[in-house]
Design brief:
Distance between the termini of chain B: 15 Å
Oligomer: heterodimer
Number of domains of chain A: 3
Helix content of chain B: 10-25%
Radius of gyration of chain B: 13 Å
Shape of chain B: globular
CATH architecture of the largest domain in chain A: 3-Layer(aba) Sandwich
Order of helices and strands of chain B: EEEHEEEEEHHEH
Radius of gyration of chain A: 26 Å
Structural class of chain A: alpha/beta
CATH topology of the largest domain in chain A: Aspartate Aminotransferase, domain 2
Shape of chain A: globular
Number of strands of chain B: 9
Largest sheet of chain B: 6 strands, antiparallel
CATH class of the largest domain in chain A: Alpha Beta
Number of helices of chain B: 4
CATH topology of chain B: OB fold (Dihydrolipoamide Acetyltransferase, E2P)
Chain lengths: 484, 128
């Protein structure tokens, strides 16, 4: 392990020095009440400029991202982020504006947001969008708040339960729970799809709605979606579309046409904006017209060629983000959509599906694939054969991939597949990259049979071998504290 | 995989030990093995009333977060607070560590649960 920057601190080391000030200093103690003043100096590291640069350069060289190599992290859609998006977001007219500026001085920014909403409506078949939510789970929460507001506005207060499939992303039940709904699980059938009989049996006048991902986390399209929508709607519930897997359907199928009432999208998955530390994220949601009054304020409106922010929306659930959402991300997504156009977006989904099916077909000989049929943008393999025959688990396979310069896929999810490896290559990978991944996976399978002991100690080439995950979860050390 | 003969078992891999009208509830060896290292246990509140199949708590491992269900209906009279500090004891001694104690409201529900023998067959089938 390398040292933390705090451990590199040398008393008196400085990155810069300031000349003596010719203005007499103000005494802080005279300006700020004593209650608010700290008694000890803050513990900040003291290093020279070059040492600070070297420290962070070394850390950056250890990180691994889409720009470093293959990253098939299922359901996260770790696609390449085109650099032209960054150029657009850095244009001074976008980068230099302030959210408190008067409307008439930021007409271009409002126009971009308005048009992005229009484009997302067209792509998803919804009637209105809000760009405020900062990420997928935030979008889900906004969507569930709208479901609640809708039922309450009708005096329909019995609906205290939300249905989620047993293959759902963990955020679905978490969101419903956060809003006070009791979570009810609907089972998957033997084909990995929502069990219609089970759903029918669960529906009642206490059900607020169904939160569904389509294609689901097995990468399978819910073929009975129209029937599912009818079952939910007939019982007075609403249908929520989790857009985590939208990369499989863009330009081909629309949640609005499938019968969904509310739909979220992750701009940082489907629309090529950065994920995680490169973010922030953005999780816009769209609704059908009968729910539009509940959208967060402000909404952007266009009158006689001018754009306005309308806060006068009595039924609105209120604000869900400071100002208008993560604006820079919107510029990047707008650029992505405009650069690709409708035929380009369709090709994104087609290639994402093609790449996933290529991997699935090539790996099917060595790894068990529980639902082995034409998939969408991702599929779930299982290491249960390797576990049974050689004691090699999905975790071991993931660690061995690190030695082969691949980011591991998502493991142990969805929960309905044992020893799950959830693989999503995305559309931006070349045939050569995919072949290298297949070769790595086949080699790991060979090693499982020939040298399982070595595999259980993988990764051999990483800076950190196997972190003590259990220890970290049970006794997390969340901050550095000095030794004495 | 250890399965005790004198306990009742649920489909969700929970066990029930009966003492009078009290039901001691825990998770089976099979459950702890499949969850992996357990790092957190959320216990129900004493006095809480639950129907059979209701979620009474949450068990979090390095691999997954699982709901803990009660196989029988009743009122919580005690919980195993030691698990909050040492959740790993569920891995080491799944049958020695109950999670909660319920005063049963309908002891007839026990008839719907599996015996040790039936549960052994159930786990073998799940492994295939």
């Amino acid at each position: 392990m390398s040292k933390l920057i705090f451990e590199k601190s040398v008393k008196g080391a400085r990155a810069f020095t300031l000349p003596e000030s010719d203005i007499p200093p103000e005494k802080v103690s005279e300006e700020i009440p004593a209650d608010f003043l700290r008694e000890e100096d803050p513990l900040l590291p003291e290093v020279s400029e070059v040492e600070a640069v070297r420290h962070f350069t070394a850390l950056s060289q250890r990180s691994y991202g889409v720009d470093s190599g293959f990253y098939p992290l299922g359901s996260c859609t770790m696609k390449y982020n085109p650099k032209i998006n960054e150029w657009a977001a850095r244009l001074p007219g976008f980068a230099g504006i302030h959210p408190y500026q008067p409307e008439e001085t930021v007409q271009g920014a409002l126009e971009l947001m308005y048009e992005l909403e229009q484009m997302l409506c067209e792509i998803t078949g919804m009637d209105s969008f809000t760009l405020q939510p900062a990420a997928g789970a935030h979008g889900e929460m906004t969507g569930a708040m709208i479901i609640k507001a809708y039922h309450n506005s009708r005096g329909d207060t019995k609906r205290t339960k939300m249905i989620v499939p047993d293959s759902a992303h963990g955020t679905n039940p978490a969101t419903a729970n956060m809003l006070g709904y009791k979570v009810i699980e609907v089972k998957s059938d033997e084909r990995g799809l929502v069990d219609l009989e089970d759903l029918r049996a669960l529906m009642s006048d206490e059900i607020a709605g169904l939160m569904l991902t389509n294609p689901n986390t097995l990468g399978l399209f819910e073929e009975n979606i129209r029937e599912i929508a009818a079952i939910v709607h007939d019982a007075g519930g609403l249908l929520y579309y989790d857009g985590a897997n939208a990369n499989a359907i863009i330009g081909i199928a629309r949640p609005g046409d499938m019968g969904f009432d509310i739909c979220h999208l992750n701009l940082h998955k489907t629309f090529g904006t950065p994920h995680g530390g490169g973010g922030p994220g953005s999780g816009p949601i769209g609704v059908k017209s009968f729910l539009a009054d509940f959208l967060p304020v402000p909404v952007i409106e266009k009158h006689e060629g001018k754009y306005h922010l309308n806060y006068n929306r009595p039924l609105s659930i209120g604000k869900v983000h400071t100002f208008y959402g993560n604006f820079g991300v919107m510029v990047k997504a707008y650029t992505y959509i405009k650069a690709l156009g409708s035929s380009g977006l369709k090709a994104v989904s087609q290639n994402a599906v093609l790449n996933a099916n290529y991997l699935r077909t090539k790996l099917a000989g060595c790894y068990d694939i529980p639902y082995n049929r034409l998939c969408k943008h991702e599929f779930v393999a299982s290491a249960r054969k390797q576990k049974k025959e050689a004691g090699i688990t999905a975790l071991d396979v993931a660690k061995a991939l690190i030695d082969r310069r691949c980011h591991p896929p998502t493991v142990y999810f969805p929960l309905i597949v044992e020893e799950a490896l959830m693989i999503e290559p995305t559309e931006t990978e070349t045939r050569e990259r995919l072949d290298a991944f297949i070769e790595a996976m086949l080699e790991i399978d060979r090693e499982a049979r020939e040298n399982p002991e070595r595999l259980k100690e993988a990764p051999h080439r990483a800076v950190i071998r196997r972190p003590d995950e259990t220890g970290a979860a049970r006794n997390p050390k969340l901050k550095w504290t000095p030794k004495d | 995989m250890e399965i005790k003969a004198n306990l009742y078992y649920s489909d969700d891999h929970e066990w029930v030990r009966v003492e009078g009208d009290l039901a001691y509830i825990g998770i089976t060896d099979y459950a702890q093995h499949h969850l992996g290292d357990i790092v957190f246990v959320e216990l129900p509140e004493i006095g809480g009333e639950f129907a059979a199949g209701d979620t009474i708590g949450v068990i979090e491992s390095v691999k997954a977060v699982a709901d803990m269900h009660t196989p029988v209906s009743g009122t919580i009279t005690a919980v195993n607070e030691a698990l909050e500090e040492a959740p790993e004891t569920l891995n080491k001694d799944p049958y020695g560590q109950h999670i909660a104690v319920l005063k049963m409201s309908n002891p007839d529900e026990l008839k719907k649960l599996m015996t040790g023998e039936q549960y052994t067959a159930y786990c073998e089938q799940a492994e295939e």
